[in-house]
Amino acid sequence: MAGKESIPKILVIDDETDIRDGCKWILSRMGYDVLCAENGQDGLQILENEDIYIVLCDIKMPGMDGFEVLAKIKEHYKSVLVIMITGFSTVEIAIEAMKKGAYDFISKPFTPDELRIVVKRAFETLHLTLEANALKLEQQKNLIALQTEQSRIRTIIETLPHGLMVTNILGQIVLMNPVAQNYLDLGPDNCLGKNIELCIEDKGLCDYIMEISRGHYKADKDTSYELVLSDERFILAEGRPVLNEDAQCMGAVVTLSDISDLKIFDRLKSEFVAQVSHELRSPLSVIHDQLAMVIKASDSEKSGKSVTSENNQYLLGRARDKTKSLISLISDLLDISRIEAGNDCLEPVKVHVEDIIKKIVEFQAVQAKKKNQSIALKLPDTKTPSLVCDPLTLESIFGNLITNAIKYTLEGGKISIKMDIRDENVRVKIKDNGFGIEQKHLTRLFDKFYRVKDDNTRFINGTGLGLTIVKSLVDSLKGSIHVESEPGRGSRFTVILPCNAQTGQTE
Length: 507
Ligand code: ADP
What we know:
This protein is an alpha/beta fold. It folds into four domains: 9-134, Rossmann fold (3-Layer(aba) Sandwich); 149-258, 2-Layer Sandwich (Beta-Lactamase), CATH 3.30.450; 262-340, Helix Hairpins; 349-498, Heat Shock Protein 90 (2-Layer Sandwich), CATH 3.30.565.10. 47% of the residues lie in helices and 21% in strands. The chain has helices spanning 17-29, 40-49, 66-76, 91-99, 112-159, 178-183, 196-199, 203-213, 260-302, 309-341, 353-370, 391-407, 439-442, 466-476; strands spanning 9-13, 33-37, 52-58, 81-86, 104-107, 163-168, 173-176, 225-228, 234-243, 249-258, 349-351, 374-378, 387-389, 414-422, 425-432, 480-486, 490-498. It has a five-stranded parallel beta sheet with strand order 2-1-3-4-5, with helices on both faces. It has a five-stranded antiparallel beta sheet with strand order 7-6-10-9-8, with helices on both faces. A hairpin with a 2-residue loop joins strand 14 (414-422) and strand 15 (425-432). Helix 11 (353-370) runs parallel beside helix 12. The longest helix is centred in the first third of the chain and has 48 residues, at 112-159. The protein is elongated. Residues 503-507 have low confidence and may be disordered. It binds adenosine-5'-diphosphate (ADP). Adenosine-5'-diphosphate binds at residues 400, 404-405, 408, 432, 434-435, 437, 445, 450-452, 457, 462-468, 491.
């Protein structure tokens, strides 16, 4: 019945034709759609088929009487209002009908006005009931929407990757998500409503949050607090006051972010800067000293004291050597930063690895010859699949490895380079019978600036960046590099590069 926009229907059940007709005439003129039945049975039939709002029902009828009809209506059509039509001076009966659920009664004979008033009142009641029901429905809907909204916000807060905590002006925790609980090592529920000082061990963090909760936040100050956890994790707490409409502080909202990675990065950066500064300073100091000595010598010559020009030559030669190693350090550093920035590769072209290796061996043979070393090269008999990459990348990888083999092998040593193809991969092994490397150094060999410092290597110049560059370049080709070594017996570096790296082309 609720919400129907059609003309409201009234049913009149009375065995007296005059009453039925009279009611129909009066009520139709009020704008209602009036249906009539001359007995209870017919009336109930109409109720079953029509959307009736109000029933006017005679009490005394042959067959099913008004009480019986009333009982059936109350049982099956709860929202229908029943107005009983009672005979002359039967008020007791009318009262009994009201007790049994009738909405009102009207006694025969009644005037049109009396009928209008009683029906109008019934409709007003119906209207109010409808409004109340609609209001209740709306309220329920709002409640559901509110609950949905609340649960949505709760879900968002709980799935935030950062910790979140809200306190009131007294510093009591009113909200805390699981990440915050984890950072602060607190159980899920045992902290809500409690003062932060009872829950958080770190006094500095408590003071920081308390200050903001109490409204002592200064917007112009960059405020945050760094918390160090027992497992060496660093948590950054950043709080802001929660203000009401009158800009009064009601508490604090605090985010907690894990900044451990940033801290490590910062430390590595500082270490790197320190390392580079150190590497630059030593040769520069030597150059400075050598030049100072040459200047002093030339001053002495001018003043007639004898200082040989060979000595000057020697000092200048050393200065030149140091300058050379500085230049090589700087170009290694530039290479690394280019590779790490990802823009090392020029236009990729098809390259045959064996062609590059042949060229490098030819070039390095001069150095090897100086040390009376032999370089044996074994390449596949047939042409191998090409790689699509910048040829300089391959030159740098194999150039560095072959240079090292020569550098870290004694005079008369043997170097061998073997290349083959296995499982769609190019495999190159660079072997020497040089100093070898102790097991403990192997894991750090590809780190920046890592150099093995022992009696064999002490006087060999280097930057400790060559293998870092090699590893980064091999990674950029989606390949891998391994090292096996034994002190006193030599080392073997194996580079594996997929033939279909980059564009996946093979010949
Ligand atoms: P650099 O040669 O400039 O010191 P690298 O990064 O190329 O730097 O090499 C790092 C260290 O690894 C070297 O200092 C050296 O001790 C060791 N190393 C590299 N190649 C060999 C090799 N073939 N035999 C023995 N030691 C080697």
